[in-house]
Specification:
The structure holds two protein chains of two kinds. An eight-stranded mixed β-sheet of chain A has the order 5-12-11-7-8-9-10-6. Chain A has an eight-stranded parallel β-barrel with strand order 13-14-15-16-17-18-19-20, surrounded by five helices. In chain A, strands 21, 22, 23, 24, 25 and 26 form a six-stranded mixed β-sheet that branches. In chain A, helix 15 runs parallel beside helix 16 and helix 24 packs antiparallel against helix 25. In chain A, a hairpin with a 4-residue loop joins strand 11 and strand 12. Chain A starts with a strand and ends with a helix. In chain A, 43% of the residues lie in helices and 15% in strands. By secondary structure, chain B is an alpha/beta fold. Chain B has a domain of 68 residues: Response regulator (Rossmann fold, 3-Layer(aba) Sandwich), CATH 3.40.50.2300. Chain B contains four helices and five strands; from the N terminus they run βαββαββαα. Chain B has a five-stranded mixed β-sheet. In chain B, helix 1 links the parallel strand 1 and strand 2. Chain B is globular. The chains are: A alpha/beta, B alpha/beta. Chains A and B meet through strand 24 and helix 28 of A and helix 1 and helix 3 of B.
């Protein structure tokens, strides 16, 4: 006799994949048949099929009935009802609460352009425009036959085996995964073992004589359609999970033949993908890759690191990405504004033409300064080098002003392949970087894998705590041949330039000694074999394990240089997982204790007369540069696109004041105090209020919106703000109280905002007068934009601006401003009143 | 006539000072004397004493925000206008206080 249990769905997101898989797990092991009925939709599902349960579209508040019938029905029902009562209401708690920063308001120019705008999280800044290309969209290669199987049983066997194998693979991978990745794998696994999924494959083969490929295609279409029809965004996204499982099944059965036509970019493209592996990213033709839109990506995932170093604008976290229909249209990924823009209009295109001008303007300006040697204003040299992950990036890094390669991560050579690269392949890669360096120094880091970056061919078992486990130098003795091959390739390459070898994860002197022995032995072999190499090649260590930070003196007897790996050092020192956004406050390099550690390392290295550099993410942020300059580092290495900005900023700094800043920071009690100190420091950098480049004659702005944008963009180009959106927004908020067009053909838009780095005055004269909703209703011929930092009350600049505001009511002064056409002379007219 | 005035706009960067200049210019043109206090990003400047306020024939408050020490003007003959009015048609303000 069947047993029934009625319940009301308590889950805010209804029964989507995760709750369904929890239910399935409860009833799976009973022999009794279990069905689930949604009274609202009158749909009935097999309680052992996640997909079927999801298909009943159960939402919060829906009345539902579980029916259990079979030999062990009593037991099953008891377990099920207690689960529904105790655990079910909490089974869909959010996994991690990722802090989503409120998206900045869009520029009015874009907001009113009539295009469709989706918001997302900027991951790599910049703007890319191109045809939308969906990556990893499910498709079965046309070469695979779909129909007319003569022996269905024979066709079914490999399919069944593949399902089994896939399940085992998931089990294995689940052992290593945590958080969101584990949750995702669980969903995939539950699909792979879903009874309805299996039945639909089976029926397609046996009843309709479909091939395995045909059956997979049919099942994919059926379940995707079912999920897509649901009103729940969470469910619609699950369609991608089904595709993923189907793709893996295909690969399992057909091997390489299942590879759908590789995504080949043939024109400027914006690639849209649920996720992208580093290997997939590298396979894309970067000549055409103008932007990336990912459903999810952590800030330090390897794909993101790659995208950053190739300067590919990247946006993540676009809601409902899976269901946006792009077709083949041109789209814009705007990772500056945090927007994905489709259905482009003329106004939107014009906006992005202005944006292009803004961005290239800044690049051109940075290029000018990047040709110079990096040094502070008072002449202290600090080498600004670039971090790269592939040899191919070297040329671009040097072109953007890098004075060396401060970190060549060699992992990429080893990842995503069935066997390690041989000596010759490595040698060629290292040599290529040295050739591009043309005599400039190159630091190549030996393989940092294991733990969080597993290599299939090393066969390392999963660890509880991969970041604290066997990685980098810790696995070299076990894989000595692998390490020796790399060292030998490096020794050989050393003949071709100024090469240094850096060892990751050094914690003890013993490790350093062991490495040095191997290097010496390989060098000796080269001597014997009459192979050319540089005997002066230096060997150094990453300082990323806190123990090494306190062993610099002892390590100095073995090693030639040190480079602080700030990412790992910070996470190990603060005992805070850097991938966990909830620990962001701890993973803050401005923690005073961390700064004290950096000081200790830098001082110890200097005392030993060893070169000391920093090559972590901290080095790439202009904001932190005064502190790093205060540490008197010899070198800072950062992602290539950051190099020019760092050099420009460095030239504004003074070594002595930076040291004083650092001293003050070391005495702070909290990271917030340090942050405030940095703010204050940056505010005191003396930069004039107006310069000739802030005078814009004959602007092609046709509207008030464009005039304001162009004036603010000029501040961005000149490095007077790093966030033009925020400044523009502040100007518009002021404009909302009443128009700043005060008559006589003049307007004086202004704002006070944290995003302004240096107080600035922009003078802009449009070619033809622009409507401004002015007091006298007349269009505007002269725009004077004042951008002021927050908290400037009573400063000299404010005094000057007060004078200017008074002066501007003077007819003669306005006439002078209006008649003069030469930027330098206009600048002089303005300066006269200061 | 003898006037005193206060100007104060929301950000205190531009219009406070523009309005002050405009009032001074217009007063001169109309043959009046005026002292204008500004309350802007520079704080209070050209501050009006109670004696100066008391000696004035009328007070012009060209303000968009609440001002400091407003009680100085509690007994005075005064007119309150938006800052914009002082920029757009200052003569009309003086005309109202004739």
């Amino acid at each position: 006799m069947a047993l029934e249990h009625e319940f009301i769905c308590p889950l805010p997101s209804g029964i989507h994949a995760r709750p369904a898989s929890a239910l399935e797990e409860v009833v799976r092991h009973f022999t009794a048949e279990v069905t689930l009925l949604n009274r609202r939709t009158q749909r009935v599902a097999n309680g052992k099929s996640i997909l079927a349960m999801v298909g009943t579209d159960i939402r919060q508040g829906d009345a539902c009935v579980f029916t259990v019938s079979g030999p062990d029905e009593r037991e099953a029902m008891a377990v099920l009802t207690s689960f529904l009562r105790d655990k079910f209401p909490h089974c869909d708690a959010p996994l991690t609460v990722t802090k989503i920063e409120a998206a900045a308001p869009l520029s009015p120019c874009l907001r009113d352009a009539g295009a469709t705008v989706y918001r997302g999280q900027p991951v790599v800044p910049g703007i890319g425009r191109g045809r939308a290309v969906r990556f990893g969209k499910f498709s079965i290669p046309p070469s695979l036959p779909r129909n007319s199987v003569t022996d269905p049983e024979k066709e079914w066997r490999p399919l069944e085996a593949a399902l089994k194998k896939l399940n085992a693979t998931y089990d294995h991978r689940l052992g290593n995964a945590k958080g969101i990745e584990a949750a995702l794998l669980k969903v995939h696994q539950s699909i792979a073992r879903d009874v309805d999924f299996r039945d639909s494959l089976r029926t397609a083969v046996s009843a309709r004589q479909r091939t395995a490929a045909g059956a997979i295609e049919e099942a994919e279409a059926h379940f995707s359609k079912m999920l897509a029809a649901s009103g729940n965004a969470l469910l619609r996204e699950r369609a991608l999970d089904i595709q993923d499982v189907c793709l893996q099944l295909l690969r399992e059965i057909y091997g390489d033949a299942a590879k759908s036509a590789e995504v080949r970019l043939t024109a400027d493209a914006v690639v849209v993908a649920e996720s992208l592996t580093p290997g997939q990213f590298l396979a894309l033709d970067r000549k055409f890759l103008k932007g990336l839109v990912l459903a999810s990506a952590g800030g330090t995932s390897h794909t993101v690191i790659l995208a950053r170093s190739f300067n590919i604008p990247t946006l993540a976290g676009v809601t409902d990405l899976a269901v946006i229909q792009f077709g083949e249209q041109e789209i814009v990924v705007d990772a500056d504004a945090g927007a994905l823009v489709t259905n482009l209009t003329d106004a939107a295109r014009r906006y992005y033409t202005l944006e292009e001008r803004r961005i290239t303007g800044r690049l051109l300006r940075l290029e000018k300064s990047s040709a110079r040697d990096a040094a502070t204003a008072d002449g202290q040299r600090i080498e600004i080098a670039a971090n790269i992950s592939t040899a191919g990036e070297a040329a671009a890094a040097f072109a953007s002003g890098a004075e060396g390669i401060g970190l060549f991560r060699t992992e990429m050579l080893f990842l995503d392949r069935p066997a390690p690269p041989d000596e010759q392949e490595q040698f060629e890669s290292y040599q290529a970087v040295l050739a591009a360096a043309n005599g400039k120094p190159v630091v190549i880091r030996t393989l940092d894998v294991g733990g969080d970056k597993p290599l299939a061919y090393l066969n390392l078992p999963a660890e509880e705590n991969p970041f604290l486990g066997r990685r980098a130098v810790r696995i070299y003795p076990e894989f000595e041949t692998l390490f020796r091959t790399q060292i030998r390739a490096l020794v050989r390459a050393s003949a071709g330039g100024k090469l240094s070898v850096m060892i990751p994860m050094i914690a003890t002197v013993d490790e350093a000694r062991w490495v040095k022995t191997i290097v010496a032995e390989e060098q000796k072999k080269c001597v014997a074999e009459k192979i050319e190499f540089d005997p002066a090649m230096s060997v150094g260590a990453m300082i990323e394990v806190p123990a090494a930070a306190l062993a610099v003196a002892a390590l100095s007897r073995e090693l030639d240089f040190f480079s602080i790996g700030s990412n790992d050092l910070l996470q190990y020192f603060m005992a805070a997982d850097r991938m966990n956004p909830q620990l962001a406050a701890l993973s803050n390099p401005l923690q005073p204790a961390f700064l004290r550690l950096l000081k200790l390392i830098a001082d110890a290295a200097r005392a030993q007369k060893k070169e000391i550099s920093l090559c972590g993410e901290m080095g790439g942020q202009v904001r932190f540069l005064p502190l790093l300059a205060g540490l008197s580092l010899d070198k800072i290495s950062a992602a290539a696109p950051a190099v020019a900005g760092l050099k420009a900023e460095l030239s504004r700094l003074n070594q002595k004041t930076c040291r004083q800043l650092l001293d003050a920071a070391l005495n702070c009690a909290t990271a917030d105090e340090v942050s405030a100190l940095l703010e204050q420091f940056s505010a005191q950098l003396s930069v004039p209020l107006v310069e000739a480049e802030l005078v814009m004659i004959d602007s092609d702005a046709t509207t008030k919106e464009e005039a304001i944008k162009q004036a603010v963009d000029r501040l961005f180009i000149l490095g007077r703000t790093d966030n033009s959106q925020a400044v523009e927004d502040a100007v518009w908020r002021r404009e909302a109280t009443y128009s700043t067009g005060f008559g006589y053909g003049f307007a004086i838009p202004h704002c006070q905002a944290n995003a302004v780095r240096f107080n600035s005055l922009v003078l802009l004269k449009p070619k033809s007068p622009v409507a401004w909703n002015s007091l006298d209703g007349q269009p505007v011929r002269v725009v004077i934009l004042l951008a002021i930092r927050a908290g400037q009350a009573g400063t000299t600049h404010m005094q000057v601006l007060a004078k200017l505001a008074r002066k501007i009511m003077d007819d003669d002064f306005r006439a002078e401003l209006e008649q003069e056409k030469d930027p330098a002379r206009l600048c002089a007219v303005l300066e006269k009143i200061f | 006539m003898k006037f005193v005035a206060v100007t104060a706009c929301p950000t205190g960067i531009a219009h406070t000072y523009m309005a002050a200049a405009q009032l001074e210019k217009t007063a001169k043109k109309l043959g009046h004397t005026i002292k204008v206090e500004t309350q802007g990003a520079m704080g209070i400047e050209n501050e009006l004493s109670q004696a100066e306020v008391d000696a004035a024939d009328a007070v012009i408050l060209a303000t968009d925000i609440a001002i400091e020490q407003e009680d100085r003007f509690s007994r005075a003959r005064k007119i309150q206008v938006p800052v914009q009015a002082a920029l757009k048609d200052p003569e009309a303000i003086f005309a109202q206080l004739k």
